From TrEMBL, chain A:
Family classification: Belongs to the FMC1 family.
Record CDD domains: Complex1_LYR_FMC1
Function: Plays a role in the assembly/stability of the mitochondrial membrane ATP synthase (F(1)F(0) ATP synthase or Complex V).
InterPro entries assigned: FMC1_homologue
Protein name in the entry: Protein FMC1 homolog
Record-level GO cellular component terms: mitochondrion
Signal sequence coordinates: none
Family annotation (Pfam families): Complex1_LYR_2 (PF13233)
From TrEMBL, chain B:
InterPro entries xrefs: ATP12_ATP_synth-F1-assembly, ATP12_ATP_synth-F1-assembly_N, ATP12_ortho_dom_sf
PANTHER family: ATP SYNTHASE MITOCHONDRIAL F1 COMPLEX ASSEMBLY FACTOR 2 (PTHR21013:SF10), ATP SYNTHASE MITOCHONDRIAL F1 COMPLEX ASSEMBLY FACTOR 2/ATP12 PROTEIN, MITOCHONDRIAL PRECURSOR (PTHR21013)
Gene Ontology cellular-component terms listed: mitochondrial inner membrane
Chief subcellular location: mitochondrion
SUPFAM superfamilies: ATP12-like (SSF160909)
Subcellular location: Mitochondrion inner membrane
Assembly information from the UniProt record: Interacts with ATP5F1B; involved in the assembly of the F1 component of the mitochondrial ATP synthase (ATPase). Interacts with FMC1.
One GO-annotated biological process of the protein: mitochondrial proton-transporting ATP synthase complex assembly
Functional description taken from the UniProt entry: Plays a role in the assembly of the F1 component of the mitochondrial ATP synthase (ATPase).
Protein name in the entry: ATP synthase mitochondrial F1 complex assembly factor 2
């Protein structure tokens, strides 16, 4: 199967997601310090194929996928499914009618 | 005193559980965070932080209050990475709390509360049942393009799994599905029993999302990425999209939701079953 993206791309991707999520103060968040810490720790390895490094890379790739797809899902939801119901006035306006006005208020209102 | 009926969308369907509110003298410290079906909960905290308890388990603090599960238990996670990920989920909420976006929190709650009282053996049995109707074993006969696609994409994964676990799993296009020999089931049974309860909770979630135990195990074994596993699970849909076109508000929406849930499940499994040991070699000058 295709190889994973390089650690640099994954790291930058995660940081972009964190910035999109939390705004300009993302550098002070818990996740930022933990991610940077983990990437730095796993950078240098003695073996050519270091299992822990590959595992960490896969985990970070998974987390990037989680953040990115949650954000996209939320964006699509707001774009297409986020409008909710129309109010009675709008519904009446769709067919060209207007709701009647009762000066004394409707019977069941207080 | 009951606060109200809690409707929390659980990973295994809709579970209605009743959330008790604490007696009034403890109100300041614990409150039901998941209640009210009609109005939406507003974000009531400024900061999210984590802390480590005496037993080494990590807890989440919203402002000063400790997070609790819907069952009333204290929310504890065994490792720091998972705690930070859950804290980030809570921190990502703006204005209102959208619980359906907090997949990791939901998974942790399920693992901690175990509301349906599932044992490890029950979970393993239900996972093995999935093997008989696994997505990548269940092939079609026509249209030919789809048959080709299934052969090219699913066969390598099947062979990799067969080699990895030393089992035989066939693929079939009959309506009954492939015949799985008992030896295969025993091998998988043995493999799955080595997982902890938390990991099995996550695994069940991923299997129910991807509709395939082989794809889930391939992802947990780090052979597939989340995007690849989701693509393989949705192979027929992708084929039809290629033929008839993509509908963003349905196809992309479903794909991103599936990816988010699968990624959360996969991360949950990996974090619940890893032992963090970093051997630092000292540079010898």
């Amino acid at each position: 199967m295709a190889g994973l993206a390089s650690p640099l791309r994954v790291c930058r991707g995660i940081l972009k997601e964190l910035r999109a999520m939390q705004g300009p103060s993302y550098k002070r968040s818990l996740a930022y310090s933990y991610i940077m810490d983990q990437f730095r720790k796993n950078k240098v390895t003695g073996e050519r194929y270091c299992r822990a490094q590959q595992e960490a890379l896969h985990a970070s790739h998974t987390y990037l996928c989680l953040l990115a797809s949650s954000r996209n899902h939320q964006a699509l939801h707001n774009l297409y499914h986020g409008k909710g119901e129309r109010s009675p006035e709008e519904v009446a306006g769709l067919v060209g009618l207007r709701l009647p006005t009762q000066p004394g208020g409707k019977g069941w209102e207080k | 005193m009951f606060r109200g009926i809690v409707q929390l969308r659980n990973s295994f369907g809709n579970v209605i559980s009743v959330c008790k509110s604490c007696p009034s003298n403890q109100y300041s410290r614990c409150l039901s965070k998941y209640s009210t079906a009609s109005t939406e909960r507003k974000r009531f905290y400024q900061d999210v932080s984590i802390s480590q308890g005496d037993d080494g388990l990590y807890e989440i603090n919203l402002d000063r209050r400790k997070l609790k599960t819907p069952g009333g238990k204290l929310f504890t996670v065994p490792n720091e990475a998972l705690a930070i990920a859950v804290a980030t989920e809570w921190d990502a909420q703006r204005e209102t709390l959208k619980f359906y976006t907090m997949h990791l929190t939901t998974l942790c709650n399920t693992a901690l509360d175990n509301p349906t009282q599932r044992s490890k053996q029950q979970m393993i049995n239900s996972a093995l049942k999935f093997l008989e109707t696994d997505t990548i074993c269940y092939r079609v006969d026509e249209p030919l393009g789809l048959v080709e696609l299934q052969k090219n994409e699913w066969d390598p994964v099947l062979h990799w799994m067969e080699n990895r676990y030393n089992v035989t799993i066939g693929s079939s296009s009959s309506i009954l599905g492939p015949e799985i020999p008992q030896a295969t089931k025993d091998t998988f049974q043995q493999h799955l029993s080595s997982y902890s309860l938390w990991s099995l909770t996550g695994l069940e979630f991923v299997i129910s999302q991807l509709k395939s135990i082989l794809l889930s195990l391939g992802m947990v074994d780090r052979y597939l990425t989340v995007e690849q596993a989701v693509l393989l699970s949705r192979l027929e849909e992708e084929y039809q999209i290629g033929r008839w076109g993509n509908v963003e508000w349905a196809h992309d929406y479903d794909m991103y939701e599936l990816r988010a849930r699968t990624a959360a499940g996969a991360l949950f499994i990996q974090l619940s079953s890893e032992n963090l040991t970093v051997k630092h070699k000292i540079m010898q000058d």
